[in-house]
Amino acid sequence: MDEQARQQEANFRYGLIASLVSRKLDPGEQMALMREIVSHEYETSSGQRRRISLRTLERYLKAYREGGWEALLPSVRADKLTTREIPEDVLAKAIALKQEQPGRSVRQIIAILELAAFVAPGTLKESTLSKQLRRRGVTRKALLNTGWSHFRRFEATHRNSMWQGDVQHTLYLPHPDKPGKKVMAYLVIFIDDYSRFVCMASSISRNVWPGWRIA
Q1: FRET partner for 15 with CA separation of 20 to 30 A, picked from 21, 100, 159, 206?
Q2: Is the pTM of this model over 0.90?
Q3: Does residue 106 come out as left (phi exceeding 0), alpha (psi in the -120 to 50 range) or beta?
Q4: Phi and psi for 151 in degrees, rounded to 5?
Q5: Is the pLDDT of residue 81 over 60?
Q6: CB–CB of 9/1 below 8 Å?
Q7: How far apart, in whole angstroms, are the C-alpha atoms of residue 194 and residue 201?
Q8: b/e string for 113-149 if b means 16 or more Cβ within 10 A?
Q9: What is the DSSP code string of 132-190?
Q10: Does the pLDDT at position 215 exceed 50?
């Protein structure tokens, strides 16, 4: 499974559990919602139709609550994720950025490193960096329990000197043209780092517009 396929699978898994992790539910409500989720058939980004068992859904939910979105990525061979793939100075900078703001996603950290010309665009893989951070205990959950607020937060020094963007995988919604089918909805946003001004925000579905991309 290549990197794009792994990320698409993680997006699919998150879409299944999004309604379970986006709000607090009591045990009875959660189980009822889980049974409703597994009763449907879903269409993946590759056009395949899939059903998910309750046990599998429970596994996805547990993985997300323990490790976030990155924990939903399908596993790969350990020898493909050695430290040699990330130079020590790059890994140290990534760790510092995560410690500085635990809420930063791995994707955001890579974007900052690329925008700062610390690494060449496309050379640092999201799954590889995520694995190395987890191995070192540098996760949002761990940092929130270890006094992370003492780290200085990063902020650009001038307006428009840096924009940051991210894509949030949200829910499976009814397909507008195919009754009975559901598609993943994505939220896309770009903000100015200095002013925190929202420069662009939009929602889109890759299944409905398969050629979409952010230029």
Answers
A1: 100
A2: no
A3: alpha
A4: -80, 140
A5: no
A6: yes
A7: 17
A8: beeeebbeeeebbbbbbbbbbbeeebbbeebeeeebe
A9: HHHHTT-SHHHHHTTTGGGSPPP--SSTTS-EEEEEEEEEEEE-SSSTT-EEEEEEEEE
A10: no
Please name the amino acid found at residue 123. Answer: T
Question: Which two structure tokens, joined as six digits, stand for 157?
Answer: 């020094």
In the chain, the amino acid numbered 135 is: R
pLDDT in tens, 91-146: 989 998 888 888 888 889 988 888 877 888 878 888 889 888 888 888 888 887 76
Q: How many residues does the chain have?
A: 215
131 φ/ψ sector (left φ>0, alpha ψ -120 to 50, else beta): alpha
Token pair recorded at residue 107: 């994707």
Q: Is 82 exposed, middle or buried (0-12, 13-18, 19+ CB in 10 A)?
A: exposed
